[in-house]
Amino acid sequence: MKRLATCVALWALVVPSMAAGQTTVTVLGLRSAPAEEDVARQMTEALRRAAQAASSPELTYSGRTNDLAQLLVLFDCDGPTPQCLQRIGESLSSNRLVYGLLEPQSGRPDADFQIDLVLFDVETSEDVRTLREVVPRSTNAEGMNALASRFYRALTTRVSQGSLSVRCSVAGAHVFLGDREVGTTGADPLVLRELEPGEVRLRVTHPDFQEFTREVTIAADQLLEVDVAMTQAEEVPPDDDTDLADTEPEPTGDTNDQRSLAWLGWSSLGLGVVLGGLGLWGSLDVYFANTDSVLHTEREHWPSETNVCDQADDGTIRNESGDYTAQDVADRCGRARAWQALQFVMYGLGAAAIGVGIWLLVREVQRRDDDGEGEQAALRLTVDPVVLNGGGALSASLSF
What domains sit in the chain, N to C, each tagged with a CATH number? Predict the structure, then answer.
């Protein structure tokens, strides 16, 4: 019984009272979640004040203050569907309805509000215009009125549009406004309607004719006529210098810079081999020095633990035959010591040079395989010192 009384009361609010033949608008208000009801109510009231202030013979505010949520309950609607809105508009004798949704832009407590407004045409049961705007959370009452006034004008103000007529001397040409193709020319002019006022670039193209381009200005409620005279395309003889410059092939993977990498890689490998050969030469020289007949003869006269080279440095030798002197022994020992140290330097430098050469060649092969595309594999050359029993060496490793 209580529900029936409520429905009767609501129905009394929607009794038609507007004179026939007038275009009227009713602001039904905004739906929102319970947490935003106060903001939605304030914006609804501000929109109604804006509608009252903007009333004109073309669009008159009905003065109705019916709430959208209540009307949806009254007409047993699941939501603001076109059929339901049409029934509501007819019951209110309104030709246009303004309604919308207000919700936060995000889940943050300080987020601003987003408002979606719709102007609905009751006679055609279609949306005339939609609007999405932002209402700052900090907006005061005066700011709310200013926003509502702007929103209402944007929804209800009629935008005058213009037309463009393109008459072309060639049929089958493509017509563009800006970057958008809008039609093809024929025997009759191509007429384009409902164009936004303003300046736009008109472009007409045909494969056998030179392109026509002109900046035109579309005026509201006016038809602009443009005559396009296409000019036969002429074959321009190629200019030798320009042709060569334009047709020069793009650089490939076999450029001078890339060949220089390969050359440097092979050179580095060669240098490494030479240095390794010198190291081997030093090893052989040390071997032959140690097996030299003079040193061998001298060692036979000393105990096994005695260093003959140290004795020679002190000027002490036991040469019973008198075939050599202490200086002869010292010279042989000095040469053996020099090559003993130098061979490891040569081996280390040779290994490093070979590693660099391999790195450069692998890099070149990868570059050619990839044909200049993608990232090349990471290459890394590592040289580490190695301590051996009685000497040292360098260890080189290449990872890719």
Answer: 2-156 (3.40.50.10070), 162-228 (2.60.40.1120), 256-399 (no CATH)
